[in-house]
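dumping these here so i dont lose them again. two proteins, back to back, each one seq then structure tokens. dont judge the mess
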Amino acid sequence: MSTNNDQSSKPVRAALIGMGAGAERIMLPGLTSLPHVHLAAACDPNAANRERVATRWGIPETFADPVEMLTAVKPDIAVIATPPLTHYELGLMALEHGCHLYCEKPFMPSLEEADHIIAIAAEKNRFVEVNSQYYQMPIFRQVQEQISSGAAGRPFQIDAWQHMYLLPHEEGGWKAALQPRRVLFEFGTHAIDLICRYFDAYPQAVTARIAQVRADIDADVCINVRLDFPEGRIANFTFNRMSYAPLRYFEMRLNCEKAAIRTSLGGLARLDLGWNSERGRPRVRFSLTKGGEARLEQHGDSRLLANQPDSAFGDAAAAHFGRFAVAVKQGKVPEPAIQHAREVLRVILACYESAEGNGELLNL
């Protein structure tokens, strides 16, 4: 006869829906490496892709149809790694089969769909989580440590930006179909998630504008957003995917009472020679990293706090999913709770509403 200890020692059984490039880069490293997780099966409509991915990652069983997989395997957790417009249908399917739900971001196309998924999960006593994993990366964990310890003081203003040249038709795949709501919806989840974490609050108002960069592009390839937070704090971010400037995948600077904290996500090679006017001496900065770095800026100097490998995306997803799997095993509400993902989605949709109203200030 099995005991509670026997049950608690068993790994959580997961099944993956979607075996594309994103799943291989983000989801599968964690699903196949966490000792308390067993990836029992995966599904994808492409037979050749199923065979290749299953062989590479050692997936014991694959299916073409998610209903067939969920019925046959009966996993504890269904992991959805498909395009966002499929999340609602697949999420309902997973919950109806008794699974806890772990969903790739962005969560849902609308608040109504998000609220329905959350309500169904509550009725069935199932947990739902969204893979907004950036907070688990070393550089962003270091930012949180500087804030929590008081070393940098209270953050009062945040700037974030992305510069690259990547038009919708050049990226292709399902992301190209996300028009006109594209860049903020697909990538902005990460920026808003981090900003809300660092301010430990959600914005009270938003203002957004989308630049008309070219007549043949109907998407937010250049969007500016301002978020107004309680206690007079503000955040600004610009995502520009029609920029000829050097590529910057994701940059963020937090201005705090005692120091500024700068993060650079993505490969970085920089040698900076300058003059520190506050200290009256030369300033030298050298950065070389494949995955990104965090720096403390104070009194004209810049000090390295942390850097990370280019595997940080998958490592962070593994850590985030690992926490969810432990919560499922213990029957405890996961942290962050799904309401956080719902609030992030609400902010994103409000930004689009503001932009469509020519930058109207929207109170939340």
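---- next one ----
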Amino acid sequence: MANPAKATRGVDSARRVLQILLQFSETKPETTIEEIAKIHGISIPSAYRYLSLLREMYLVEERNRGSYSLSPQVLRLAAASEVSLDLASVSRPVLERIMHETHETALVVKRIRDAAVCVAVAQPDKSLAISFRPGHIMPLHRGAAAKTLLANLPARKQQQYFAALEPQLLPEELFRLESQLGVIGQTNFAESESEVDSGVWAVAAPVIVSSRVVGAVSIVAPAFRIPEETRVRFRTIVKDASTEIANGILNESLSHPNG
């Protein structure tokens, strides 16, 4: 995956504090000083010092003796982030309707620098393990939704993305990908199979607001249960959904012109 940004110089301590904060997740809601020291390769005193700063800012609190978790203060930050995500809020009802109509997973992703990030998902079958979930970061060159975003970047930025990939794509892989992106850019439509998750088929279309691609909407499903006639129907559904979400975002911006 491409490096989303070059390391900012002179802020190593701040970077470490943020890395510790980002260590918390839905599946890993608690941590210890010893665990922080091990994960980040730092001493126990250093881990304690970084954690003390997070506690001072009311971002982390001690739940049990020696065990730390995020504090309710983080919910305020999450709420502020949610307010700014018109794409997520507008798309959710559309995704829910698609899920009930198709009985498959529907999701929306947006581009953040050199990555595709899932901002909303509606999934009926929790047994289907997919990599895209809210907040999850994926490369731009794998999967229908991500490639839809990459295809709509200027050629210069596409080349910059390819150059930053580690490991580099083989020449034949790069040629095939560039050919796919050319078609996707012309048709505003993409399909993929087993590119992100094995055995999973996906179809996607860009969400375009005022001539700018703000995200991509996608339907994903196990390939074995999606015959061609169903794929044809899903292509229409996802294209209509992209238009509906775009119109919803535009209406939101018109109703709240000052933010």
